[in-house]
Design goal:
This protein is 15% helix and 41% strand. It has 235 residues and is mainly β. It contains three helices and 13 strands. The protein has one domain.
């Protein structure tokens, strides 16, 4: 037997074997096509999550398949109680994965709605949990006690690592101006507009992705800034 051809064949088989081993997926890594890196604008994403900062690159991104879209929207406020039309969902970012959990960010837009949503999948492509990290439903300001106007809250997050996220909510409130304060409870004809922001509420939370894929929110702190007091205070 000629040793040299046999040795060459052996080496080729060995190289092919080890090459296949190196291309094999990580144990427990989701193999569903929705986890392909090419679908996302960002991979292994960390940092700021801000719906208002999304640029035109998202328009060139990939739409989420309808069956995956239905999984995400199922039992998800505000889509669980209202018939929505013209919902558009796009892949945005893929976060660092664990052995059994793959978090992703999708951008969802609809009437009076726009948000970046964190969705945790297991290795079978099933949704474990989801949460808005920035944006949300905003159908207009909310009037309270006939004298206050509360704007839609501004929310944003910072992804620290694969398990921890800082979440912030800022809510601004305006006070109404009336031509006659004695009439403010009896007729809208006395209303003349809104004053500057009397106060701003800032709330901060810590989000943690647990081993079962659930997102746990822990309230950390709240701060109320009295804008009038800040403006009128003497240095």
């Amino acid at each position: 037997m000629n040793v040299r051809p046999a040795l060459v064949i052996f080496m080729l088989v060995a190289i092919g074997f080890f090459a296949c081993q190196n291309r094999s997926p990580h144990i427990g890594r989701p193999s569903t096509s929705i986890f392909a890196d090419s679908l996302y604008l960002f991979v292994n994403y960390t940092g700021m999550v801000e719906d208002t900062l999304i640029d035109s690159r998202l328009d060139k991104g990939f739409d989420v398949d309808s069956n995956i879209e239905q999984k995400i929207l199922s039992n998800f406020h505000p889509f669980d109680s209202t018939s929505w039309t013209m919902v558009r969902m796009k892949y945005y970012a893929k976060l660092h994965s664990t052995i059994s959990i793959q978090p992703i960010l999708v951008h969802i837009s609809a009437d009076d709605y726009g948000a970046l949503v964190l969705v945790n999948f297991n290795d079978k492509g099933e949704v474990l949990d989801k949460m808005e990290l920035s944006g949300g439903l905003c159908a207009g300001p909310d009037e309270q006690d006939d004298s206050l106007l509360v704007l839609c809250p501004s929310t944003h997050s910072v992804i620290i690592d694969s398990n921890h996220i800082a979440f912030y909510k800022i809510r601004s409130t305006y006070s109404a101006l009336f031509s006659d304060t004695s009439l403010k409870k009896t007729g809208s004809q006395s209303w003349v507009g809104y004053d500057t922001i009397p106060f701003i509420d800032s709330l901060s939370y810590k989000l943690e992705i647990k081993k079962d894929g659930k997102i746990v929110s822990t309230f950390l702190d709240s701060v109320r800034i009295d804008v009038h007091k800040k403006i009128n205070s003497k240095p």
